[in-house]
């Protein structure tokens, strides 16, 4: 997560990161014709990973329509939402597969493909970057086919968050290490409110989105990515209520908080153009 001070020259950081990543790519290709090195230590072997029962799936998903799926077209623009994106049966298989990921023995270092308990927030997270096991590959391919990512900046980094019904995530931006587009898929039977607020007070309106479970998709880019922070509130209440700033359901709609897994998909510059194994 990036720090949220307003003093950061976000655009400069972003362009610097992009330039550095290009340079690393060039150096790496010149050296050994292989992709740049990345933090790959401790990847689970295929034996450690749970078996994927849906090995021969082809995942059919709807295309993102940047007009009809846009829920905030200005102030900030570029927030898109699809309530039904992943097929229901795939969501169930994926949930079961994710629950069986190995658990890291230590909480010190993030280990690829393992669940970690975050120290402060207590929620569980797991990361896949660069080379993906089958179910994650299906998701990245689906997001490309839906027109959300393209070959110039394919999905190469997946952050998985596992929340109890009361847990959330503090306001943050995803920062300049990534291409400025985030796609998040939600699994589970409940719903949650995702809040957007400007990094600089008053620069943009606050927005809220009700994220359904069972395979919904939210995509944000542009100002919503770089100039706004997003968050999910912690609460012990069973229900949250959508406010008038909510842009995909009427104010007053109830969100039933339940255990939830989200998959946040992005292109990280220092991992290069790899997409899958
Ligand atoms: O779980 C979500 O929907 C949000 C996740 C998120 O913002 C993040 O991991 O940076």
Automatic annotation (TrEMBL):
Its main location: nucleus. GO terms for molecular function: dioxygenase activity; metal ion binding. Signal peptide: none annotated. Keywords: Dioxygenase, Iron, Metal-binding, Nucleus, Oxidoreductase. It holds the Pfam family 2OG-FeII_Oxy_2. Residues 18-29, 40-49 have a biased composition (Basic and acidic residues). This is Alkylated DNA repair protein alkB homolog 6. The lineage of its organism: Eukaryota, Sar, Stramenopiles, Ochrophyta, Bacillariophyta.
């Amino acid at each position: 997560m990036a720090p949220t001070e307003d003093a950061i020259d976000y655009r400069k950081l972003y362009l610097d990161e992009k330039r550095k990543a290009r340079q690393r790519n060039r150096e790496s290709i010149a050296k050994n014709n292989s992709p740049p090195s990345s933090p790959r230590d401790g990847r689970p072997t295929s034996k450690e990973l749970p078996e994927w029962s849906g090995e021969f799936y082809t995942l059919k998903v709807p295309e993102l329509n940047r007009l009809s799926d846009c829920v905030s077209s200005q102030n900030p623009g570029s927030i898109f939402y699809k309530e039904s994106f992943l097929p229901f049966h795939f969501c169930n298989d994926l949930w079961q597969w994710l629950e069986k990921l190995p658990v890291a023995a230590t909480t010190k270092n993030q280990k690829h493909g393992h669940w970690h308990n975050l120290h402060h927030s207590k929620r569980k997270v797991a990361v896949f970057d660069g080379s993906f096991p089958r179910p994650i590959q299906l998701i990245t391919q689906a997001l490309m086919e839906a027109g959300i990512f393209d070959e110039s900046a394919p999905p190469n980094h997946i952050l998985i968050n596992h929340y109890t019904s009361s847990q959330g995530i503090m306001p943050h931006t995803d920062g300049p290490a990534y291409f400025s587009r985030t796609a998040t898929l939600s699994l589970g039977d409940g719903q949650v409110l995702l809040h957007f607020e400007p990094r600089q007070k008053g620069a943009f309106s606050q927005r809220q989105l009700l994220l359904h479970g069972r395979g919904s998709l939210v995509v944000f880019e542009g100002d919503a990515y770089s100039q706004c922070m997003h968050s999910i509130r912690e609460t012990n209440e069973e229900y949250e209520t959508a406010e008038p700033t909510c842009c995909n359901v009427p104010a007053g709609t109830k969100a039933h908080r339940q255990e939830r897994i989200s998959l946040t998909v992005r292109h990280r510059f220092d991992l290069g153009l790899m997409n899958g194994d």
